[in-house]
């Protein structure tokens, strides 16, 4: 809409029911300390929203709104700015807010002007309180950023911009992660889907070439996404976890930890994905609860796999007819059994301790009954089959009893040569053939439904197998202990503090870390095995080159040797754990300005889901390699879920690219994007249904500012953010209000105005001037406090409430009479100059306070403010406002509360009576308190303006009701009257009668409560006093409403 002189207040007052329906619900964080005026307006607004919910996306509503609109908005042509050049601010402001136009060109100009690139030499020696350094949590190069990444970006950019504006030396360093298994599996799936080839068909070198091509394509898109959301990172320092600098750090870290004895090679059980043929970290395993017998599909196997059943069969005691019945949910692993365990105190089986057992398929295999306390006597038969090579508990038991470890699986999940007659069968095919074979031998007992927890590969969805394979391991015990102490002694802060228990739980129970992966994409392990001469036991040596490793081996073995590098790569978390210092050039720290200036960093901000997997490893590895914490504070934000509380999932169709919200997208193109990934056709159809349900008309264009502001407004929701895109659409309307109100305010300055740089203390400020700068100072104070405490939702609330409810709804309205008409009166001209200065401060400070939240819009509008000696080249480097104690005036703010309450009641009455918005009826106010009457008399012109009524007369307490007026109750002490001649008041009479009935019920309820038997004896005196006061207030309000109804009836009768 285009704001004309009298449209602003009425337009905002009608925002919930007019063309702005679907406008923003105000930010949820009431704790930001918004003013009573704002809180009342917020309540009024929420009540309206409850009655008339936003109808964006409802069929036919768009057309209806367009027909109602007073002014047709035509989108103006976007002027193209040469890349890196400053946008032309001499052009007239567009009539309508257009995020595409507003958000164009600024990012490239900021980058060219190096606003985000600090000088390392200048930063060296800065005290910690005057620097702010943060590395981005490097997103996986597997694909595009989603709204979860955007929340991370919005939070981190808000902090970065705030610190920069606070005058701190600021660096936010960007980068992307190579994401070993995730990236390799994505490329493998595409290869198979599009070319029917596997990586083994291509070979390692050709396959890695394909992965690098994928990386270049996606890294470019990720950079574009970050630029579009206005991420103020330093692109000159951008890093990739497999670039030369990071690769150097990874190699050095492995060698140093190996030399310290913390990294070693051992044959242990790992989480194994047979389909991908690699070990996995715990994070890469999705655990599902299986309630009972279930059939599941897995890749590489045509039949369904039966899970959630407990199979029972018998082992015969050698040389006897006795048998022990055992139970298992993984029948095929019995091919690797080497013992049966019973509890040492189980009387049923004491006679069998040490007895030999006969394996039905391997009669020559030595198997015995062992006694071990790991067995639960009460579960099943009390007998447990032991398979040391295929179960974590059995492995430990086998070590305790010296049992043989027999691995009967090959890497691809088939039965190997140790599986006898079942060799070559898929392990789940063997599950059925072993059952049949046991039945033939008379050893089968049966099977029954059984609840269990099953691990699936998060990438391939294959069932995870505990698999015995030589791997590289890291002992993290000492580093974990040091990391726990850092939090306990306050050296490292983790916020919110309820995450401390998770930190302690993980690190105080830390296990050995399997750091090797059987992949091709990643950092190849800098370890070399001696292949010539042949060794009785494997000999491994680390080195920064093959020659260095060979030299180490030759020195150790006393002879010339040949070595070959390990084919495996390192777990992605190993290189990610080095990110806070590898990006600055560690281990090459001599003459390294970046390392000296920016390490340790200040803050690590990320989602709480990777507290252990990434954050803890960064802390441990930094302590182990640099002797320092990598940062002094960790802030963990909530996880983004959809509006229904569901986890973001491609198959649900709720994974949204931020650019789809910024630019808008129709449903058809949302559907098309599903085909760009690797989803199976069945999953694509499921996702399309989800999209059609949530976005029947697609997603409208919101712009980056509205998306950021909306995400930040959600951040008080705890562990999860249930994001409703419709609410983000509402914040686009707020951006429009900021645009229109600023455009309207700029009209008051004219062409020759220059702000002097500050408000002089002796400036003759009007009542509303003193009120608005008091509220502005409060807003600055609350915004700074919110940013300091990472309470971003409170920052959105403070700025939103001030701009919309105080600057727009009140102050701009009160300015209008001061600028009305032409004049040569010197006093009037001086007052207008004062008003311009205060308005400038309000707009200037508003833009700077909102800049970390709305970077593009505020830069665009800041550039259009009149000149000032304190105005900066860019708002990005302008000082962030702080509260001015001398401006605060709480007594005056209380006067505004009274004024606003009365004005609100007049506006409500006008609306309910059906007055034309432009009508200015005569009005009257009666107050029972003398001091309040004097105050209202002083402020009646302001009330008139705010209430959109005509001349106001303040009545004495005992004066008769004005003739031909409609009375309304503000509170028990204050009444208002509006001239209603010529209006049809039948509708208002019905409403007032309802109010009278409601008030009568309230009074009656108090009477009944206070008249119950024993009330005086049983109810505490303070409660009786409260009830008495409430009763009196309710009675008085009822009487006023009855008088108002009587007044209305008199007005309708012409009296």
TrEMBL record:
Q: Which domain of life is it from?
A: Eukaryota
Q: What is its EC number?
A: 6.1.1.9
UniProt-listed Pfam families: Anticodon_1 (PF08264), tRNA-synt_1 (PF00133), Val_tRNA-synt_C (PF10458)
Q: Where is the composition biased (Low complexity)?
A: 9-37
Group of enzyme by EC? ligase
Q: Which CDD domains match?
A: Anticodon_Ia_Val, ValRS_core
Q: Tell me which PROSITE patterns the record gives.
A: AA_TRNA_LIGASE_I
Q: Which InterPro entries match?
A: aa-tRNA-synth_I_CS (IPR001412), aa-tRNA-synth_Ia (IPR002300), Anticodon_Ia_Val (IPR033705), M/V/L/I-tRNA-synth_anticd-bd (IPR013155), Rossmann-like_a/b/a_fold (IPR014729), tRNA-bd_arm (IPR010978), tRNAsynth_Ia_anticodon-bd (IPR009080), Val-tRNA_synth_C_sf (IPR037118)
Which reaction does this chain catalyze?
tRNA(Val) + L-valine + ATP = L-valyl-tRNA(Val) + AMP + diphosphate
**Compositional bias segments (type: Basic and acidic residues):** 38-72
**Domain Valyl-tRNA synthetase tRNA-binding arm residue range list:** 984-1048
Start and end residues of each stretch annotated as Disordered: 1-72, 1014-1038
Record keyword Cell membrane present: no
Q: Does the keyword Cell inner membrane apply?
A: no
Record's keyword terms, sorted: Aminoacyl-tRNA synthetase, ATP-binding, Ligase, Nucleotide-binding, Protein biosynthesis
What's the family?
A: Belongs to the class-I aminoacyl-tRNA synthetase family.
Name of the molecule in the record: valine--tRNA ligase
Q: Which organism is it from?
A: Durusdinium trenchii
């Amino acid at each position: 809409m285009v704001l004309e002189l009298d449209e602003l207040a009425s337009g905002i007052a009608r925002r919930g029911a007019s063309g702005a329906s679907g406008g923003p619900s105000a930010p949820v964080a009431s704790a930001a300390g918004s003013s009573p005026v704002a809180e009342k307006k917020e309540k009024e607004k929420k009540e309206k929203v409850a009655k008339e919910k936003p109808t964006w996306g409802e069929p036919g509503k768009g057309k209806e709104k367009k027909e109602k609109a007073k002014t047709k908005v035509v989108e103006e042509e976007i002027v193209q700015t040469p890349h890196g050049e400053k946008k032309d601010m001499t052009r007239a402001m567009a009539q309508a807010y257009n995020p595409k136009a507003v958000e164009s060109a600024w990012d490239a100009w900021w980058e060219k002007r190096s606003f985000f690139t600090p000088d390392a030499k200048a930063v060296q020696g800065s005290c910690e309180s005057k620097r702010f350094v943060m590395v981005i949590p490097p997103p996986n190069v597997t694909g595009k950023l989603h709204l979860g990444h955007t929340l991370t970006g919005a939070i981190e950019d808000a902090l970065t911009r705030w610190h920069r504006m606070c005058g701190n030396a600021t660096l936010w360093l960007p980068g992307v992660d190579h994401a070993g298994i995730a990236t390799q599996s994505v490329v493998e799936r595409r290869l198979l889907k599009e070319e029917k080839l596997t990586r083994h068909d291509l070979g390692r070198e050709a396959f890695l070439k394909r992965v690098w091509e994928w990386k270049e394509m996606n890294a470019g898109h990720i950079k574009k996404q970050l630029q579009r959301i206005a991420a103020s990172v330093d692109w000159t320092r951008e890093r990739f976890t497999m670039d030369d600098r990071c690769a150097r750090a990874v190699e050095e870290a492995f060698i140093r930890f190996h030399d310290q004895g913390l990294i070693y090679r051992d044959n242990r059980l790992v989480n194994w994905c047979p389909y991908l043929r690699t070990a996995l970290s715990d994070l890469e395993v999705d655990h599902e609860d299986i309630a009972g017998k279930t059939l599941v599909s897995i890749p590489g196997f045509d039949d369904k796999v039966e899970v959630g059943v407990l199979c029972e069969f018998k082992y015969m005691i050698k040389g006897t007819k006795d048998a022990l019945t055992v139970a298992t949910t993984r029948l095929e692993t019995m091919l690797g059994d080497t013992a049966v365990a019973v509890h040492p105190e189980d009387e049923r089986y004491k006679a069998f301790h040490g007895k030999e057992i006969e394996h039905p398929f391997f009669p020559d295999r030595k198997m015995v009954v062992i006694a071990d306390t790991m067995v639960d006597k009460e579960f099943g038969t009390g007998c447990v089959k032991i398979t040391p090579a295929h179960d974590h508990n059995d492995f430990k038991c086998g070590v305790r009893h010296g049992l043989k470890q027999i691995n009967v699986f090959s890497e691809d999940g088939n039965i190997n040569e140790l599986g006898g007659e079942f060799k070559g069968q898929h392990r789940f095919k063997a599950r059925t053939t072993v059952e049949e074979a046991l039945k033939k031998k008379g050893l089968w007992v049966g099977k029954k439904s059984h609840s269990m927890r099953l691990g699936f590969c998060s990438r391939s969805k294959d069932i995870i197998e505990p698999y015995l394979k030589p791997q590289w391991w890291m002992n993290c015990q000492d580093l974990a202990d040091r990391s726990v102490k850092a939090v306990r002694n306050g050296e490292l802060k983790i916020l919110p503090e309820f995450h401390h228990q998770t930190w302690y739980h993980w690190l105080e129970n830390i296990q050995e870390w399997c750091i090797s992966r059987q992949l091709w994409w990643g950092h190849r392990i800098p370890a070399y095995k001696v292949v010539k001469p042949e060794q009785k036991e494997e000999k491994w040596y680390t080195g920064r080159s093959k020659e260095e490793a060979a030299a180490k081996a030759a020195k150790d073995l006393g002879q010339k040797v040949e070595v070959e590098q390990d084919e495996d790569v390192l777990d992605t978390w190993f290189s990610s754990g080095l990110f806070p210092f590898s990006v600055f050039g560690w281990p090459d720290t001599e003459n390294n300005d970046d390392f000296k200036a920016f390490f340790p960093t200040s803050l690590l901000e990320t989602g709480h889901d990777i507290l252990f997997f990434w954050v803890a490893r960064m802390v441990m590895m930094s302590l182990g390699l640099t002797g320092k914490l990598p940062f002094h504070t960790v802030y963990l934000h909530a996880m983004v879920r959809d509006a229904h509380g569901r986890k973001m999932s491609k198959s649900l169709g709720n994974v949204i690219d931020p650019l789809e919200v910024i630019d808008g997208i129709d449903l058809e193109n949302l559907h098309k994007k599903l085909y760009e990934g690797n989803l199976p056709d069945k999953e694509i159809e499921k996702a399309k249904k989800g999209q059609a349900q949530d976005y029947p008309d697609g997603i409208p264009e919101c712009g980056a500012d509205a998306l950021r502001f909306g995400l930040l407004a959600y951040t008080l929701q705890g562990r999860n953010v249930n994001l409703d895109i419709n609410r983000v659409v509402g914040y686009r309307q707020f951006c429009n209000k900021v645009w229109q109100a600023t455009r309207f305010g700029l009209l008051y300055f004219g062409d020759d105005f220059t702000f002097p740089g500050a408000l002089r203390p002796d400036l003759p400020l009007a009542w509303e001037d003193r009120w608005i700068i008091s509220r502005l100072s409060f807003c600055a104070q609350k915004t700074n406090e919110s940013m300091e405490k990472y309470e971003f939702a409170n920052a959105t609330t403070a700025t939103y409430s001030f701009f919309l409810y105080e600057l727009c709804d009140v102050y701009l309205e009160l300015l209008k009479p001061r600028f009305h008409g032409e004049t040569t009166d010197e006093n009037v001209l001086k007052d207008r100059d004062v008003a311009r200065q205060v308005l400038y401060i309000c707009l200037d400070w508003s833009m700077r306070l909102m800049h970390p939240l709305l970077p593009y819009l505020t830069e665009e509008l800041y550039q259009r403010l009149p000149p000032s000696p304190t105005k900066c080249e860019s708002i990005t480097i302008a000082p962030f406002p702080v509260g001015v104690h001398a401006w605060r005036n709480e007594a005056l703010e209380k006067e505004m509360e009274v004024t606003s309450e009365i004005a609100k009641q007049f506006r409500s009455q006008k609306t309910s009576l059906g007055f034309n918005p432009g009508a200015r009826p005569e009005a009257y106010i009666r107050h029972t308190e003398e001091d309040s009457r004097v105050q209202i008399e002083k402020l009646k012109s302001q009330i008139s303006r705010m209430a959109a009524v005509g001349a106001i007369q303040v009545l004495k307490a005992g004066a008769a009701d004005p003739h031909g007026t409609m009375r309304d109750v503000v509170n028990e002490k204050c009444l208002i009257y509006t001239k209603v001649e010529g209006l049809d008041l039948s509708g208002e009479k019905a409403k007032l009668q309802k109010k009278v009935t409601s008030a009568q019920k309230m009074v009656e309820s108090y009477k009944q409560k206070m008249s119950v038997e024993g009330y005086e004896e049983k109810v505490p005196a303070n409660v009786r006093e409260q009830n008495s006061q409430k009763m009196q207030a309710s009675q008085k309000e009822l009487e006023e409403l009855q008088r108002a109804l009587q007044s209305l009836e008199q007005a309708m009768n012409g009296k």
